[in-house]
Amino acid sequence: MFRKGHGYNSLEEFLEYFHELPGARYIYYNNKLMHMNFFTAMSLNSIERAISQGIIYHAEHTS
Question: pLDDT tens digits, residue range 38-55?
Answer without folding.
Answer: 888 899 999 999 999 999
